Amino acid sequence: MGLGTGLTLAFLALMIITAAKSVAIVPQSEEYVVERLGKFRVTLNAGINILVPWLDNIAHKVVVLERQLDAFKVSVITADNVEIQLETTTFFRVTDAAKSVYRIRDIPLALKTTAESTIRNEAGKLELDALQSSRDQMNERILENLQEAAALWGLEVTRSEITDVQVDQQTKDAQRQQLNAERERRATVARAEGERARVQLEADAELYAAQKQAEAVKITADADAYATVKTAEAAAQQTKVIATAIADNGKPAIDYDILKRQVEAIGVLAASDNAKTIVLPTDVTKTVGALAGLQDLLKSS
What is the recorded membrane topology of this protein (predicted)? Predict the structure, then answer.
C-alpha cells in the first residue's frame, strides 16, 4: 500500500471521527454536559444534537431519572429527652445537570448529610408521642428544608419519608404502662359518662311525667270550671225564665213553682229505699189539686 493510499485512508478515518464528534444522540433518561476547551458551554437534552467537532466535548452524562437514597438511620434526642432511631429514605432527581456536576461532587452523601441534620433539628423540637403521631407533618417540614438546600445543587427532592421510629426496650415498657393507664382512664371516664347519662335520662323521664300530670290536673280543673260556668249559666237562665213567668202571670206562677217542687220532693221521698212508711199531711191532695188548677190557669193565660 502506497503513501497516497495511506493518506487517503487516514483522511477518511479523520472525516468519520469528525462526523461522529459533530453529532450527539442523547437518551430520554439522560442529559449531557458539554464543555468547549474545558469550559461549560451547553446542556444537551434528549434527541439529536449538533456539536462543533474537536472543540466541543461531552464531559458528563447525567441521569435525570428519580433516584432513591439507601435507607439510613438517624439518632435523635426528643424534646422529652428520649433517644430514638429514625429510619429515613429520600427520593430525588436532577433538574439542572450543569449544577449537579459543577457545584457538588457526591450527591448521595450531600443529601444524606443534609437530611440527617434537618431530621435531628426538626425531631428534637417534638416529644416522642407528638413525633409518632405527627409523622406526616415531620416529613413535610424535612422535605421543605431539603428542597431549599438541593436547589443549589440542581436537584429536586421529591419525597422524604420517616419509615420507622425505633426506641429501646425500657422506653417501650414505659410506653406500654402509659398506654394501659390511658386505657383505664378512658374506661373510667366512659363509665362515669354512662352513669351520668342514665341519671339524666331518669330525671328527664320524671320531669316529663310530672309535666304530663300537671297538664292533666290543669285540663281537669278547666273542665270543672267550664262545667261550673255552664251550671251557673243554666241556673241563671232558669231564674230568668222564672222571673219572666212571674212578671207575666204574677202570683199564680209563683204558687205553681212552689207546689211543683213540693210534689217532686214527695216523689223523691217515696222512691227512697229507706222509706218504709210515709206519713203525708192531709192537705197533700189539696196541693195536687191546686197544682193541676194552676197549670190549667197558666196554660189558659
Answer: Single-pass membrane protein
The three cell numbers of residue 135 are 409523622
End-to-end CA distance of the chain: 176
Residue 86, beta-bridge partner list: 74, 165
Q: How many CB atoms within 10 Å of residue 287?
A: 16
pLDDT, average across residues 157-170 = 84
Per-residue pLDDT band at 207 (split at 50, 70, 90): confident
Under 8 Å between Cβ of 26 and 32: yes
Confidence (pLDDT) at 40: 93
C-alpha to C-alpha distance for 111 and 104, rounded to whole angstroms: 10
Please enumerate in sequence order all residues whose Cβ is within 8 A of that of 62, keeping only pairs 6 or more positions apart, or say none. 30, 31, 32, 33, 94, 97, 100, 101
In order of 12, 13, 14, 77, 214, the CA distances from 2 in angstroms are 16, 17, 18, 81, 134
Sequence-separated (6 or more) residues with CB below 8 Å from residue 167: 82, 84, 85, 128, 175
Taking the model in full, what pTM does it have? 0.54
Separation between Cα atoms, residue 33 and residue 100, nearest integer Å: 10
Burial class (CB in 10 A: 0-12, 13-18, 19+), 229: exposed
| SS3 assignment, position 107 | helix
Could you read off the pLDDT of 96-141 as tens digits, one per residue? Answer: 999 999 998 899 999 999 989 888 888 888 888 788 778 888 888 8
At 298 the pLDDT is: 47
